[in-house]
């Protein structure tokens, strides 16, 4: 284990925060899965769900390790190739039409021969963000025109969002907001961003109007769920307590209020037996109930520290594409976590967004790990550049020492030669000797 940890590259702080979130997730998932255990096989045994979550986390960390080994600039070209594949998967997901409570919630497909369900919109989010980062980094040196960007950038964006919107409005809205944030950071002209926002709002209004015109169409029947959630959020009518959305929020608020400052203790949640999706969408309410406001603020603090570390990683990136990729795939992780917490305390309507790295679920964890692997790959490149610079300085220092040593040897040899010549001059005739050697023969002194 220690050699493996030493072999990890990239930002060690990000590795640490991700590991802490992953390790902490076992306790609330193990506790909150009792509701699923009773509904699934009536025994209440959550050990199987814990083992399943353990496998998901382990595979997720392996994904981070494998992805961070890939040079991040490879994803620039992969985004172009992967985007059409993502469209095909999204179209298949939409056509498949998995029905949940009579509403079109076709968000998952089942992987053949494995039986694992896979949420295609999470993969689409990563691919789309990398694609946008690639476009902005490529166009940085040339002026951006609205006509060209409308075809090269915004058409792929709206096609992707168009596939996701009918079944998952919250994910589509989050992706659209993150794309707008990314293009703003990438110095896309502000006047064009205003036009794009107007086009997005107009497209949404048109979609809702078409849903009103064709209420029985399966393609639009998810709109009724959006309306009921917004009405439940904005209404304080106690008669709506029987609504599913309002029921979930009420139980979540009871769980948070029951937790107090210190919480009821690990595994002692009461509302986990009544709160639907207690191990996924509303797991934050269970965390606060069991670990109190202290645990709730601790989880919030970990995400905020991770967000700060993403900013540091983006600032240190040695290329524009690296900076934009860190922002594009990193910030949505934190914003999704904040949305999940805001829903639990009724600051936002029910969205269905999970708590990254903590909520149970395989595909959501794995897609988050792919994004984290890309980010760590960017920070690994920074370390490699710094290591190359240090190695170059060490080579230059070694070469300088070798040259100095050679010069010192040559000077020592020259001094030794001069010493020998001087010694010889004392034992015989020297051309610098001013006396006449014949004086000894002539008897002169």
What's the story with the biggest beta sheet? 2 strands, antiparallel
Low-confidence stretches: 99-104
- The span between the termini is 92 Å
Strands, count: 4
Helix proportion = over 70%
Strand-residue proportion: under 5%
Average per-residue pLDDT, rounded, comes to 83
CA radius of gyration: 34 Å
What do these coordinates show?
The protein contains 15 helices and four strands. Helix content is 71%, strand content 2%. The protein has 445 residues and is mainly alpha-helical. The strands form two sheets. Strands 1-2 form a two-stranded antiparallel ribbon. The chain is globular, with a radius of gyration of 34 Å.
Summary of the model, kept short:
This protein is mostly helical and 445 residues long.
List keywords for this structure.
445 residues, mainly alpha, two-stranded antiparallel ribbon, 15 helices, globular
List the helices and strands and how they pair.
Blueprint: H1 2-6, H2 12-32, H3 34-41, H4 47-69, H5 74-96, E1 99-100, E2 103-104, E3 108-110, E4 117-119, H6 120-138, H7 146-164, H8 169-185, H9 190-213, H10 223-234, H11 244-259, H12 283-316, H13 320-344, H14 362-427, H15 439-442
Antiparallel strand pairs: 1-2, 3-4
Helix pairs in contact: 2-4, 2-12, 4-14, 5-6, 5-7, 6-7, 6-8, 6-13, 7-8, 8-13, 11-12, 12-13, 12-14, 13-14
């Amino acid at each position: 284990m220690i050699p493996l940890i030493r072999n990890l590259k990239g930002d060690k702080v990000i590795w640490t925060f991700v590991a802490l979130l992953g390790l902490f997730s076992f306790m609330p998932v193990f506790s909150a899965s009792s509701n699923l255990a009773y509904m699934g096989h009536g025994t209440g045994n959550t050990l199987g769900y814990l083992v399943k979550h353990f496998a998901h986390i382990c595979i997720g960390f392996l994904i981070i390790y494998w992805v961070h080994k890939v040079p991040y600039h490879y994803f620039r070209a992969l985004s172009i190739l992967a985007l059409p594949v993502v469209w095909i998967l999204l179209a298949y997901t939409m056509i498949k039409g998995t029905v949940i409570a009579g509403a079109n919630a076709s968000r998952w497909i089942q992987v053949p021969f494995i039986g694992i369900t896979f949420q295609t919109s999470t993969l689409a989010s990563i691919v789309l963000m990398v694609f946008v980062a690639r476009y902005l980094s490529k166009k940085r040196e040339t002026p951006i025109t609205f006509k060209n960007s409308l075809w090269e950038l915004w058409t792929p964006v709206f096609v992707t969002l168009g596939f996701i919107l009918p079944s998952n409005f919250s994910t589509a809205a989050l992706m659209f907001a993150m794309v707008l944030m990314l293009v703003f950071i990438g110095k896309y002209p502000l006047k064009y961003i205003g036009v794009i926002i107007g086009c997005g709002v107009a497209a949404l209004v048109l979609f809702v109007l078409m849903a009103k015109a064709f209420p029985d169409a399966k393609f639009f029947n998810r709109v009724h769920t959006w309306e009921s959630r917004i009405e439940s959020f904005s209404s304080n009518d106690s008669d709506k307590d029987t609504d599913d959305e309002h029921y979930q929020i009420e139980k979540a608020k009871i769980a948070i209020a029951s937790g107090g400052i210190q919480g009821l203790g690990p595994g002692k949640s009461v509302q986990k037996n009544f709160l639907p999706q207690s191990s996924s969408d509303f797991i934050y309410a269970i965390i606060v109930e069991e670990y109190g406001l202290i645990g709730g603020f601790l989880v919030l603090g970990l995400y905020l520290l991770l967000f700060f570390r993403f900013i540091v990683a983006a600032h240190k990136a040695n290329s524009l594409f690296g900076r934009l990729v860190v922002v594009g795939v990193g910030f949505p992780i934190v914003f999704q976590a904040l949305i999940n917490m805001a829903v639990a305390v009724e600051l936002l309507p029910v969205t269905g967004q999970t708590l990254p790295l903590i909520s149970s679920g395989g595909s959501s964890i794995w897609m988050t790990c792919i994004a984290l692997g890309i980010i760590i790959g960017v920070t690994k490149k920074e370390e490699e550049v710094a290591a190359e610079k240090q190695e170059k300085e060490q080579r230059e220092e070694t070469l300088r020492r070798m040259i100095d040593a050679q010069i010192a040897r040559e000077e020592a040899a020259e001094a030794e030669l001069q010493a020998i010549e001087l010694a010889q001059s004392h034992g015989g005739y020297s051309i610098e000797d001013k006396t006449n050697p014949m004086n000894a023969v002539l008897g002169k002194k």
